[in-house]
Specification:
The protein has about 240 residues and is α/β, with parallel strands linked by helices. It has two domains: about 80 residues, 2-Layer Sandwich (Nucleotidyltransferase, domain 5), CATH 3.30.420; about 170 residues, 2-Layer Sandwich (Nucleotidyltransferase, domain 5). It is about 35% helix and about 25% strand. The chain contains seven helices and eleven strands. Strand 8 and strand 9 form a beta hairpin. The chain is globular, with a radius of gyration of 19 Å.
């Protein structure tokens, strides 16, 4: 069994995989996460291999635990072998979650031109060609980030959140902000998809991240929504390195 740990800015996600199949997932706020939670999990579900991907400072206690409990353990960084080629000019600055999401999409749909959209704090767009070449991607502010920015950088605009029903034209300041942000993101996503399909007619689109299901039903283009895409990619990277160790 494989142990996958992904630490973001606010959440630590843990997944268990067996023979390429996702068995279980757990999520903890970083403020309450502790290595003892992983130790207890490993006592219940022993694992042979593991990988840690983190955007925060490495926890030496957690590293020591994983190295002692796992036969094979990796920390994802820019030196780690990948089942894709990186065409990015600055691979050392490429976010680990961005890499993992692309590898996850390739794992699910090998040999396809793929666009991965991750709708989280930031919205990222990652393009992977059928050959396995990661061409690059774009980054823009996420939905919550846009709401907060409008409130923070102005004196009178209120802080709002996303509604279930969004008008195309707002009829109040609150609905104008909601319509502007949500519809702006929808048009942005659909616009990228339409533009890239001019060059890649068979382009498959994956949508992941915390707001993936919110936008899934709002896009005109057909997409595949999978909130676990990064975890799937991390497991594939782990297996690739175990196979080639």
């Amino acid at each position: 069994m494989n142990l996958i740990i992904e630490q973001g800015n606010t959440l630590t996600k843990i997944a268990l995989f067996e023979e390429g199949r996702l068995v279980d997932t757990y999520a903890y706020k970083n403020t309450v996460f502790a290595p003892s939670l992983v130790e207890a999990l490993l006592e219940r579900c022993p694992c042979a291999n593991g990988i840690l991907s983190t955007v925060i400072e490495l926890d030496e206690e957690l590293l020591a635990l994983l190295r002692s409990k796992l036969a094979t353990f990796f920390v994802l960084d820019e030196r780690m072998a990948l089942p894709i080629q990186i065409g990015y000019e600055t691979p050392h600055t490429l976010g680990k979650d961005r890499i993992a999401a692309v590898v996850g999409a390739q794992c699910l749909r090998p040999g396809q031109d793929v666009l991965v959209i991750d709708a989280g704090t930031a919205i990222t767009y990652e393009l992977l060609e059928a050959s396995g070449l990661y061409v690059g991607g774009n980054i823009s502010p996420g939905m919550t980030t846009r709401f907060r920015a409008l409130h923070h950088f102005t004196q009178k605009l209120p802080l709002v959140s996303e509604p279930e029903v969004v008008p195309w034209v707002g009829v109040s300041t609150e609905s104008a902000i909601q319509a502007g942000v949500v519809n702006g993101i929808v048009l942005e996503m659909d616009g990228y998809i339409d533009r890239l399909r001019l060059k890649y007619p068979g382009l498959l689109v994956f949508l992941t991240g915390g707001h993936s299901f919110y936008f899934e039903r709002r896009l005109k283009n057909r997409i595949f929504a999978d909130i676990n895409l990064v975890l799937i990619g991390l497991n594939r990277i782990l297996e690739y390195n175990v196979e080639n160790k």
